[in-house]
Specification:
Helix content: 10-25%
Distance between the termini: 56 Å
Low-confidence stretches: 1-26
Number of strands: 9
Shape: elongated
Number of helices: 5
Strand content: 25-35%
Length: 193
């Protein structure tokens, strides 16, 4: 019953955009059906794109449909690609991110790191930036789309194809359930790549 109420709420909310009639009480549905049978003209409503739904057997009320959907029962995951280059005309799609309500999983394949051994790379985290170092020198950095909890951020470096190392990050969000919509807000000016 609890699962059906949010789904029906979404169905009812879509009614004005899609052309469905609102979910109504059984008495109204019964009267509408009776009037259609009497008139014998069920073509008129179907030609206008109106669909009538009787949900009386579900035992739901309008109050059930107006309840807020609890966010803790759902998990929405989004993902995408972003460029790791400072140059606006270059889209290398070197950043693949997957966002969850609590954290971001980021995979970086930065072409400018070609030839650098994965073991020589490290990552520095702050609340608003992430920096990659090679042999202790910052070679790439970014301003993040949101604020992270630096105590729960981790990284892993791997050897990649064509000599481009792979840097995997897990960035814990400080404000849980806040949507970032990506990882890179801006590539840092100190990046030498």
């Amino acid at each position: 019953m609890k699962v059906l109420a949010p789904l029906l709420f979404l169905f009812a909310a879509a009614d004005s955009a899609v052309g469905f009639t609102s979910i109504s009480s059984p008495s109204i549905s019964q009267r509408r059906a009776a009037s259609l049978l009497r008139s014998g003209n069920d073509e008129s409503e179907s030609s206008r794109g109106v669909v009538s739904v009787d949900v009386s057997d579900l035992g739901l009320t309008i109050a059930d449909l107006e309840k807020k959907i609890p966010i803790h029962n759902f998990s929405v995951e989004s993902s995408g690609y972003q460029s790791t280059s400072r140059l606006p005309d270059v889209d290398d799609s070197g950043c693949y991110w997957v966002e969850n309500p609590e954290d971001l999983d980021v995979t970086l394949c930065i072409p400018g790191l070609r030839g650098q051994p994965a073991e020589a790379l490290s990552v520095l985290f702050s609340t608003t930036t992430t920096s990659i170092t090679a042999f202790g020198r910052i070679v790439w950095s970014t301003i993040q789309m949101g604020i992270s909890d630096t105590d729960d951020c981790t990284f892993l470096t791997l050897d990649g194809e064509d000599g481009v190392p792979i840097v995997q990050l897990n960035i814990r969000k400080r404000d849980l359930d806040e949507r970032w919509g990506g990882f890179i807000l801006q590539v840092g000016e100190d990046s030498i790549l």
